[in-house]
Structures are given as structure tokens and as C-alpha cells.
Specification:
By secondary structure, this protein is mainly alpha-helical. It has two domains: 18-85, no CATH class; 88-133. It is built from five helices and two strands; from the N terminus they run H-H-H-H-E-E-H. The protein has helices spanning 10-21, 23-33, 44-69, 76-84, 106-131, and strands at residues 88-93, 96-101.
Length: 157
């Protein structure tokens, strides 16, 4: 039994409170997986910037789990050991450099499926940009030159 002041039906009320009940788990994941529980920088602005970066990475990983793995349940520690870390060695095939992954059997098939999903997502994103008339070509990043104020000339008499 649930007592509330909301005027929604039972399903909408359950969805509202269910989404709020999972926030403690997200905070725990931020603290344990992303080390957001015990850092403090010298300034408030620095601490806020670091925390915002951690939250951005958390959201980026959530989209990775939803769009690529298709499973929302694994935490960062699990994804790190099962998906993101793979033994490899740099080799060559003639004059061409190749990366040999240390994956065999079902691990190799699963990794290939994840790479296929990533490439399909990238292709569909470029197609969406092209459909909306936006330029899908990527430009390389160039650092801005620092702005230097002209030095005042000291006149010597």
C-alpha cells in the first residue's frame, strides 16, 4: 500500500517513485566506480569542474551500455574487465602493422559483435547528419593561439 498526494493512476505513481528509488544506487556507483566520493581540490570551481566531468563520463558510459552492449545492469568495474580490457600485441603482416587481440572463441565473437554495433551506430549518426543537411565531415582539432596583449613600449629619453 502506498499513500501519496499525487493524483496519478497507480502505474504512473509507481513509475514516479520507482525512478526516485534508484538514485541511491546511482550515487553509490558514482562513489565506488568513478571515485567521486573522496576528492576535494583547492578551489570550489576546480572541485565542481572535476565532479561535472565525472558526471559526464557516467552519462557517456550509460549511453554506451544502452546503445552498444544492450544491457543496463553491468557497472564500470564489470565493463572494464569484460569489454574494455583485452590483451593485445602489435604485429605486422608484411609491411602492414596489425593489432592481434588475445581473444578466442566466444570472447572474440562477442567483441566482434560489439565492434559491429559501434560501427553501425557511427554510420547511422553520419547518415542523420547528412539527412539534416549538416556537415558530417570531422575537422581536426587545432589549438587556439594564446592572445598576447601588445607590450607597452618604454621610451628612454
Amino acid at each position: 500500500m502506498l499513500v501519496t498526494t499525487l493524483s496519478h493512476n497507480a502505474v504512473q505513481t509507481w513509475q514516479f517513485y520507482n525512478s526516485r528509488a534508484d538514485r541511491e544506487n546511482r550515487l553509490k556507483e558514482l562513489k565506488e566506480d568513478f571515485s567521486a566520493g573522496g576528492f576535494c581540490l583547492q578551489s570550489f570551481d576546480g572541485t565542481e569542474a572535476a565532479f561535472r566531468l565525472i558526471c559526464f563520463l557516467f552519462n557517456l558510459l550509460a549511453h554506451f551500455k544502452q546503445d552498444i552492449t544492450g544491457d543496463q545492469s553491468p557497472r564500470l568495474m564489470t565493463l572494464r574487465t569484460e569489454v574494455l580490457v583485452a590483451g593485445a600485441i602489435l604485429g605486422s603482416d608484411g609491411r602492414k602493422k596489425i593489432l592481434r587481440l588475445g581473444l578466442r572463441g566466444p570472447w572474440r565473437e562477442r567483441f566482434a559483435a560489439l565492434l559491429k554495433r559501434i560501427s553501425e551506430l557511427a554510420i547511422s549518426t553520419v547518415a542523420q547528419f547528412a539527412a539534416h543537411g549538416r556537415n558530417p565531415t570531422l575537422r581536426p582539432w587545432k589549438p587556439h593561439r594564446p592572445y598576447h596583449k601588445p607590450a607597452l613600449l618604454n621610451w628612454v629619453n
